[in-house]
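ok so for the tutorial part 2 we go from a plain amino acid sequence to predicted structure tokens. step 1 is just haveing the sequence, like this:
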Amino acid sequence: MEIILLEKVDNLGGIGDRVNVRSGYGRNYLLPKGKATVATPENIAIFEQRRAEFEARQAQDTATAAERGARIQALNLKLVAKAGSEGKLFGSIGTIDIAEACTAAGVAVERSEVRLPNGPIRMLGEHEVEIHLQTDVDVAVRIEVVSDGEPVADALAADDDTVMADESAEADQSAAADENAGDDDVPADGETPAV
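step 2 — the prediction. this is what the tokens look like for a chain of 195 residues:
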């Protein structure tokens, strides 16, 4: 299927380029989104008349995305997650979590715009994430992932110490009970032994 691109599309071309794409990609994505039109003689003539309009719209969209990118880059994102004593997260931080954090900080970001080049974040510390706003506008954002409190491994160790203290107290009580159990056969002061 031959189409004319009405805006710049990643890995395909720029405004006015005539390209061949698979029918499904053209019909189901490019045409409904208004990114392209079918390359018929009538559409080619209409496009040439409106080329300046499409280029102006593309320039405006790029400027808007660049402004939004500057606001995103100014953000200091700090995400809180549960982690073990070695800094490994229980679970991970993905595109949805990062998009929600950006939106909560005041700049709307869709999860489809977030790029995680190394996969989901699974460790505490600082990480760099790429936000892809438009074909020509990519922004790098630093995210700090911190633990939500004491590491769970330390909490488990504290629980183990408590359990061990409880067990030793029970052992002391049972030892004292055993000592008292043997005392029943021995007469107390002033008692006569039973025969």
